Amino acid sequence: MVDGSNAPRKRRVAIVGSGFGGLAAAIRLQAAGVDCVLFEARDKAGGRAYVYEQDGFAFDGGPTVITAPECLRELFRVAGRDMDGYVELLPVAPFYRLIWSDGSQFDYGNDTEALLSQIRGFQAKDVDGYRRFLDYSKRVYSKGYEELAATPFLRFADMLRVSPDLIRLRADRSVYQTVSRFISDERLRQAFSFHSLLVGGNPFDTSAIYTLIHFLERNWGVFFPKGGTGSLIAALVRLFSELGGELRLATPVESIAVEHSASRVVHRVQSRLGEEPFDAVVSNADLHHTYARLYREQKSARAMTRRLERSEWSMSLFVLYFGTRGRYDNLAHHTILFGPRYEELLREIFQGPNLPADFSLYLHAPCVTDPEMAPAGHGAYYVLCPVPHLGVAPLDWEKLGPELERRIVAHLERLMPDLGKRIVSSRFITPQHFESDLAAYKGSAFSISPRLTQSAWFRPHNRDDNIPGLYIVGAGTHPGAGLPGVINSAKATTKLVLEDFGMANLAEAAE
Question: Least enclosed by CB within 10 Å: which of 90, 176, 365, 496?
């Protein structure tokens, strides 16, 4: 008869935050046999992918550009499921419609001949330059995404190991510098460099490694979940629950104490439900909040807090959600409206100290791909305007919010006639919302910015160096922001958790 006392002890992990990173980590660990409790401060799961419901409309908070669907499918596969039984991803075409203030337009999609024809219309000699840029982006994708996205950088030696490749790819150059080596037309330079803004980076400062996003989109496509991003979150929550995981909504973690003994480390998680012991914590909360608030009693956490406060953080966002009477059938699903300035505007967005006088916008029109995203006879939209975070521009958003809403609606009427008269429901969020509702440091929308000196080993690590049993997922750790980034951060982090639990064989099986 086997003595049950010798059986391996069941591990228990607390996941803080139910954004894509937290959900992905929870699913991977639960599928490996680790008991997970997922704490969410708000009344719905999703983090930044929260769904706002009002007046019969359901507005996706974001993210709405779904790329690299394979990393999502893998989450279901490690749990022995097929994603198609949970959610349907609809292809988006074109990927983006780009419109400049001079009226020129570019439909950026996956039809190579159509793409080259449009490039030729802007600048004939840039056709060959684009081909060379695409080849470069493919090489960066191969190294930066396929090899390194789910590989944690815990030691400086890890950085040295990949440094020769990064040097060959000239990762020290910015995204815009790199695009400009291949492309001469200024509008096309903007068309192929704006992607770093999708992960919170200024194209003039962000490492050229992020040009991989271009090939990632060309390789996998761009998608939208039927029913909205909220339906994708619901599918992941359902999967986690089916695996036996526990989700606690409206249960913010207040603090975490760490106890050391000869045999183990215990993280005591304090919430409205009381204090509970866990073998480890995976934080999908804002980095600064994790160290400055949750682990505030730890000396090393206070040191990390000071380091984070010296870091450069991504911009914030003003997002206006609105429903209209009738729909605008002239729109693409994703539209980028470039302002009259590019570099100068971005400098003001990332450095402040004021709200820029002009703006560039991203318009999301989900009904183009999924007509059921709004009540019958209506349209649902949101428009996103990058703005400075509160650390570089401590602005009065209670006053500025309504004013910026009026300016943006007036600007959109060039594309959406009589918009002001046709809006029947609206709401907006500002940097103050990111700071208060999402506990984001200074209202930053994408955590610390993806500069070269804040990437890979230089970024906060997936496993904390000084607090045993603390792990990080999400935009603030490697590989960074964006849906593929946070999903891959969970893959890298949960592999470390399982290795530390002596369950490396399960991590290898999941690979």
Answer: 90
Residue 456 in this model has a pLDDT that exceeds 60: yes
Q: How far apart are CA 246 and CA 36, in angstroms?
A: 6
Whether pTM > 0.85 for this model: the answer is: yes
Read off the tokens for 308.
Answer: 């984070």
Is residue 249 classed as helix, strand or coil in its secondary structure?
A: coil
Q: How many whole angstroms separate alpha carbon 381 and alpha carbon 244? A: 36
- Torsion sign (Cα): 72, 74, 80, 83: positive
Burial class (CB in 10 A: 0-12, 13-18, 19+), 273: exposed
Angle at 217 between CA 57 and CA 177, to 5 degrees: 115
Burial 14-52 (b: 16+ CB within 10 A, else e): bbbbbbbbbbbbbbbbbbbebebbbbbbbebbbbbbbbb
Binning pLDDT at 50, 70 and 90, where does residue 506 land?
A: low
The model's pLDDT over 293-325, given as tens digits with 9 standing for 90+, comes to 999 999 999 999 999 999 999 999 999 999 999
103: left (phi over 0), alpha (psi -120 to 50) or beta: left
Residue for token pair 């605008």: 328
pLDDT of res. 6? 53
